Input
Amino acid sequence: MIIPELDHPSFHLALAQFDQAAEAMNLDDKLRERLKTPQRSLMVGLPIRMDNDHVKVFMGYRVQHDSARGPSKGGVRYHPDVNLGEVAALAMWMTWKTALAGVPYGGAKGGIKVNPNELSLSELERLTRRYAAEIFPLIGPDQDIPATDIGTNQQIMAWIMDTYSQQVGFSVPGAVTGKPLSIGGSLGREEATGRGVVEVTLEALRYKGIHLDKTTVVVQGFGNVGSHTARIMSEAGAQVVGLSDVSGGIYNPGGLNVPDIIQQHKSGIPISEIPGGDHVSNEELLTLDCTVLIPAALSEQITIRNASNLRCKILTEAANGPTTLQADAILRDRNIFIIPDILANSGGVIVSYFEWVQDVQRFFWNEGDIRQRLHEIITAAFHRTLSVAEEKKTTMRLAALMGGIDQVAQAHTVRGLYP
Ligand code: NAD
Output
């Protein structure tokens, strides 16, 4: 039974995945009950003075799913579809993700129901600061640390950090991650999720015995995660043949010039208008012939409608929740190797963890250290997951979920139930 306030397809998906894993690992019934409901959920109304002097109220959310292993951690999403159920699902996935990677955090997520592209910069600043002030009682470097996600960026993190610092009366860089370098951001954070996506994809290619020079890649979404993933994948020697953003996609079986497309996209040209290949819809993009398909946009992109038509060998889930439960079963039967979201996109939270450690210690690392440590942590998580999948003859998704849930269950078991 789902609490009515959390009724959202992503929360149904997160719960169904949890149930499957809990069943497979024979998880204690009492723990199952506890882990199905978020620890704290806050919903806030955000009245904002618009530039035309009207007042508009936006809805904001912050959900902390679990904090048994440490402060909770999770991004902030600005998107018109954000609601409590979606944020709760993303918070639950964060709990398993941090535990699977072995970083000492619980899971959280936040968001505002807004299309940030429809606001002026000063409206966006007022909205962000009001949101930070409203969720202030829940956040902080020892409590819950926000970061970037869809529709948010370094500037937004700087405003949240500043608002938090104004409230306490001194600068607290560790209150958020994904912020600019000048206020305690980390080298390598901006590209971290994409770099992690590439690290695990390279491990999967090795495991499957596929050479990089025979590897073609299609990436859906060309924001922070998608653009860095495409760039690093092509720098590694793979051929990127398909790319898209919300406007549509571009396909060239002979290979796309990724650095050139990044330049054009930065100057404001949507992918659907960039020359150099055939223009395809986002739906068509997902079924292009390729070695690796990387959804890096929204959830529920691979569904019962298109799962039978996918033509990739490896699916690396850079986005959160891109594959529905029914589609997952179809892909399993078709023997497509899936690197599940909680493993594939964990590079972001791993380098966020490095950023927080650097902020707390007031001691900053060089980019080589960050890349090396990211490589060690994420490839170790990949191989732990692969070993469990092989040993238990199960999927990478179930193995990853079981790995994360087991860590959280151990923490709850030793801490006990208060009071
Ligand atoms: P972003 O806002 O920077 O980029 C999103 C991209 O998706 C844009 O290119 C947008 O045009 C495209 N898009 C939007 N709607 C689309 C649609 N219907 N079809 C195709 N493309 C569409 O967001 P991001 O930070 O790159 O996040 C992308 C995904 O990665 C999300 O699922 C997010 O939760 C996940 N993620 C992000 C991070 C991070 O560090 N930013 C970390 C882990 C997971």
